[in-house]
């Protein structure tokens, strides 16, 4: 957590080194919690395991052709035991586009 605070404190310095750019820091974990707490709102049915393999221990490199995969990944918050599914990332992108980016003048 300390490294995150340092990073956020240094954002203005980083911004100053990149004229003409806009750096936006967003904590996506709050938004991801919406997927876990209100899955039915997003058409999600499975929140406690990933689509790949058993969904409890597999991470991307272990999700290979021989690993069983669920029938419909759009019903899962997670792709594997760590990474969000495509539908979860789509929700986050829409949230950022609608709620976060309008706060900045691009």
From TrEMBL:
It holds the Pfam family Lipase_GDSL. GO terms for molecular function: hydrolase activity, acting on ester bonds. It comes from the Eukaryota. InterPro entries: GDSL (IPR001087), GDSL_lipolytic_enzyme (IPR050592), SGNH_hydro_sf (IPR036514). Belongs to the 'GDSL' lipolytic enzyme family. This is GDSL esterase/lipase. It comes from Glycine soja (Wild soybean).
């Amino acid at each position: 957590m300390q490294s995150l605070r340092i990073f956020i404190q240094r954002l203005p310095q980083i911004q100053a080194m990149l004229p003409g750019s806009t750096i936006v820091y967003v904590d996506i974990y709050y938004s991801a919690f919406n997927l876990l707490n209100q899955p039915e709102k997003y058409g999600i049915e499975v929140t406690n395991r990933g689509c790949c393999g058993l969904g409890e221990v597999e991470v991307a490199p272990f999700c290979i052709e021989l690993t069983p995969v669920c029938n419909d990944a759009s019903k899962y918050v997670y792709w594997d035991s760590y990474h969000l599914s495509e539908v979860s990332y789509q929700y986050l992108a829409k949230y950022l586009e609608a709620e976060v980016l309008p706060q900045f003048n691009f």
